[in-house]
Amino acid sequence: MGWTADKLAGLRAKYGEGHGGELHDPHFRKIADKLFSAGGTRQAPYAGMPTLLDAPHVSLDRDAPDFGDMQVALLGVPMDLGVTNRNGSRFGPRALRTIERIGPYNHVLRCAPAFDMNVADIGDVPFRSRFRLDLSHEDIEAHVKKIVTAGVVPLSVGGDHSITHPILRAVGEDRPVGMIQIDAHCDTGGEFDQEKFHHGGPFRNAVLDGVLDPERTVQIGIRGAAEYLWEFSRESGMTVIHAEDIPALGIAAVVERALEVVGDGPVYLSFDIDSIDPAFAPGTGTPEVGGLTTREALELLRGLKGVDLCGGDVVEVAPQYDPTTNTAQAGGQVLFEILSLMAFAPSVKTAGKESDGLQ
pLDDT per residue over 207-239, tens digit each? Predict the structure, then answer.
């Protein structure tokens, strides 16, 4: 019938007055009602204390934390003593906390994870020493163990990739977990300069500790000159998908393979920002050209809906190498996508706040 005066009149009657939060679709209205005041205002994205994904900050007693009905704990791990190249990812958590306007709604997964779950930013891991890598790993494991013991799922921001080994020691203490690792490097190397707990070897260490199941581990986006260091991945039974193979396979096939590998058991998701090509995310310690685009990374993550995530992390954001803040922006978006996936994960405890049904 085309555009008519009656259609215009109808739109004017429905949308001519009121504010932007007065939505008519019941799915979207549930979100708007939590963000807009009765007068039609909402907090400016640049106002207030910065937290990870704008989650509420919860201060916990270091020795006897009370997590209440929390389901997912967002935490910073500002430690980069395990780097083999450029340092600076110790500033990653702070950089991601300053990124605004991510979420609250995931239009692809159709969820608003901060409303679907009880989520809080619990601050940073308390470290005893800024100089001792060994003590730092002990502190990370002890802190995350308290989170896991309380039935809360940890979602961490590093820090260098060595932080994932002590996290896995806590998450996989009772049984080895599977893993989806999105990364430029396999990080299954051995001792380097008299230290085996650096960021190039966390997953060899985790397998040898019995907390990571290599046959339920898939490493996606691998590339670069360090390939000769990663024979442990093949020897242990990990599935490696190189970045060069992804264009021919397509993201859908990569997702399908990842789901086959990890199966139905508990899975840890570790996302190294250097998996993304430095054209999109230059702020990292070991950049490798030929990586994922941000669009590919998001498509890959969103395809993992339903995986039983028992924890996750975003690591290696080193903001001082990126004057545009693009890397922190990408890291913040990836963190939001992982949190969104947790809204569908069986390992996220069902106790606590009932879902608002936004999915």
Answer: 999 999 999 999 999 999 999 999 999 999 999
- Quickly count: other Cβ atoms within 10 Å of residue 351's Cβ: 10
Would residue 353 count as lying in a domain?
no
The answer for residues whose C-beta is within 8 angstroms of residue 198's C-beta and 6 or more apart is: 82, 83, 84, 133, 162, 189, 192
For residues 19 and 86, membership in a common domain is answered with no
Q: How is residue 242 written in tokens?
A: 């190189």
The two most distant CA atoms of the chain are separated, in Å, by 78
Domain co-membership, 136 together with 25: no
10 has a pLDDT exceeding 60: yes
- Is residue 356 one of the residues assigned to a domain? no
Same domain membership, residue 96 and residue 31 = no
The secondary structure of residue 89, as a DSSP letter, is: G
pLDDT computed for residue 358 by the predictor? 59
pTM: 0.95
Residue 288's closest CA among 164, 212, 186, 215? 186
Q: Starting from the edge strand earliest in sequence, which strands make up the sheet with 153-158, in order?
A: 119-124, 72-77, 153-158, 309-315, 267-272, 177-182, 212-222, 239-242
Question: Which residues does 296 contact at the CB level (< 8 Å), separation at least 6?
Answer: 246, 251
Within a domain: 355: no
Interatomic CA distance for residues 145 and 239, integer angstroms: 28
Residue 224 is part of a domain; what is its CATH number?
3.40.800.10
Domain enclosing residue 17, as ranges:
5-35
**Rounded-to-integer distance, Cα 140 and Cα 164, Å:** 9
Nearest-angstrom CA–CA distance, 272 and 331: 9
Place of tokens 């264009």: 247
Cα 81 to chain center, whole Å? 21
